[in-house]
Amino acid sequence: MNMQVMPNQAVEDMHTLLDQQRKAYRAMPMPTKKQRVEHLNGLKAALLKHSDNLVDAVHEDFSCRSKDETKIAEIIPGLNAIKYTIKQLGQWMKPAKRHLDLAMQPAKAHVMYQPLGVVGIIVPWNYPVSMALQPLICALGAGNRAMLKLSEFTPRTNEALRTMLADAFDEKQVAVVTGEADVAAAFSSLPFDHILFTGSSSVGKHVMRAAAENLTPVTLELGGKSPTIIDDKVPLADVMNRIVFGKTMNAGQTCTAPDYILCPANRLDEVIEHYTKTFSAMFPTLKDNGDYTSIVNDRQFQRLQACLDDARAKGAMVIPINPANEDMSNGTRKMAPHLVVNTTEEMTVVQQEIFGPILPIITYNNFDEVIDYINDRPRPLALYLFSYDRAKQQRILDETHAGGVSINEVLLQAAIDSLPFGGIGNSGMGHYHGWEGFETMSKTKSVLKKGKLNGAKSVYAPYGRTFHKIFYWLSLR
User: At what angle do helices 181-188 and 201-212 cross, to 10 degrees?
Assistant: First the structure.
C-alpha cells in the first residue's frame, strides 16, 4: 500500500490499516510464546536477508553514511535485541504471583501481562533502521501489532524497510506509513493503544497533545543536551578516544551523543589538544572518507552552520578540526567538527541540542559547579562522567538526573539489552528495550481469584459486634 499520496487519502488509508489490525488483534488477543517467537524469528530472517539493502539505502539518504557505522549502530543492535527478547520471553510472559493478606483469604492473586493491541511507532531520521526495529521488537514480543510512521527525510531507507517488513509480515501484523509532516500529525492523532515517538522535544509535545485527545498512553524518547564531564585527574589518553567516538558516530546526529564537555579550567588547552589529535588519528581525511558521515540534508546542514555563525558573532572562539585542510564547501554535506570555547548563555550552541559535529567546551573550577550547572538545566537523556574518583561518581549518580548515566564510557549504555532506555523531563518519558519494553507495551493486569468459600462475608452489612471485633483485630495487626 503506497502512502505517499494526497493527505486526505493517506489519512483514510491509515484508518483502514488501523481497523484491519484491530480486527486481527481481536481474533487473536493473546498470542502464544511460540507465535511471538515466530514473528521475531521472521523479523530476524528478513533483517539478515535485507541488511545490505538497508545499509546501502541509509548511505544514499545521507549522501554518505559510514556503512560500518550503520552495521554497528543499526543492524547488529536489532539482531541482538531479537536474540535477547526470544531468550527472555518465556520468563517475561509468566504471571507474577502477588501476596494476599490473611483478611483476603481464601483467594489467589497475580499479575498478567496482556498485549495492548495496536502500537503506533514514529521513527526519526537519524537512525531510521534501529529506531524502527527496537520498538517493533518490543511490540512483537509483547504480542502486539504495529504501525510504523517513517521519516520523510529518509525515503530510500523507507522503501528498503517497507520491502523488508513485507517479506516477514502481513500488513495486519506490521504496517508501514510514509509521508510528510501532515501525515505524521494525522498518524499521532489515531486512536492507538500506545504510541512510541522518537524525536525532538518540540515535536514530542505535539505528539503528546494529539494522543491526549484519545487518552492514548505515550512513550517519548526525546533528546536534550547530554553533558560530558572530565574531572581534574583522569588521564586524557585513557578517555579521549571514547569521547571522540561518541561525538563522531553518525557525525554527532545521535540523541545520546556528548552535547558539551565540562572540564576543569586548567585543563582546557589539554582537552583541545587531545581531542584534535585523537580525531585526526581516527579521521585523517574527511571529504572523501567513507568512514565519516555527512549531515543528513541541507536543512540540518544550514542549521548547524547558523549555530557556528551565532557563536562567532557573540564572541566564542570556534576551532575547526580539518586534518587534511580540505575544501569542504564544494557541494558536500560533510562537516568538519568544531570545538567552541568561551561560550555564553545567549548562544544557540548552549541553549539548544546540537545534533551534529559541534562540541562546546565549558570550564569549571570545582565539582560543585558541575553539579549546579547540570541541575540548573533541563534533565538530559544521557550523562557521561570521566573520572576514577568513586566519590565523584556517586555524587553524579545521587545528585543529578538523567535518562541514563555512563561512567568512563559514552553511547554504549543504550546498546545493552538488559538496561531500560528512556528520558526524563525534557528528554522524554517512559522506557523501552528489554524487560521495560515488554512491560511498556503490555497491560499489567491485576487478577484476583476466589472459589466458593466467601471469606469477605463478615464485612457485609448489617454491621454488628462481629464486624467490630474483626475491625479491632485488623487495626492492631
Answer: 40
Paired strand residues for 363: 263
| Residue 388 CB neighbours (<10 A) | 14
Residue 18, CA distances (Å) to 13, 112, 142, 147 in order: 9, 25, 18, 8
Q: What is residue 75's DSSP assignment?
A: I
Q: What is the mean pLDDT of each run of 10 residues along the chain (477 residues)?
A: 55 93 97 98 98 97 94 96 98 95 86 98 97 98 98 96 97 95 93 96 94 96 95 95 97 96 97 97 95 95 96 97 89 92 96 96 97 96 97 98 96 94 94 96 95 79 76 68
DSSP 71: I
Grid cell, residue 339, equals 570545538
CA atoms within 13 A on the CB side of 328: 20
CATH 3.40.605.10 assigned to 7-222+428-444: yes
> Shortest CA distance to 201 belongs to which of 360, 409, 403?
403
User: Domain 227-417 sits in which CATH superfamily?
Assistant: Aldehyde Dehydrogenase; Chain A, domain 2 (3.40.309.10)
| Cβ count near 53 (within 10 Å) | 16
Residues 6+ apart with CB under 8 A from 6: none
Q: How far is residue 254's CA from residue 175's CA, in Å, rounded to a whole number? A: 26
Q: Where in the sequence numbering do the catalytic residues fall?
A: 221, 255
pTM (predicted TM-score): 0.93
Residue ranges of domains in the chain: 7-222+428-444, 227-417
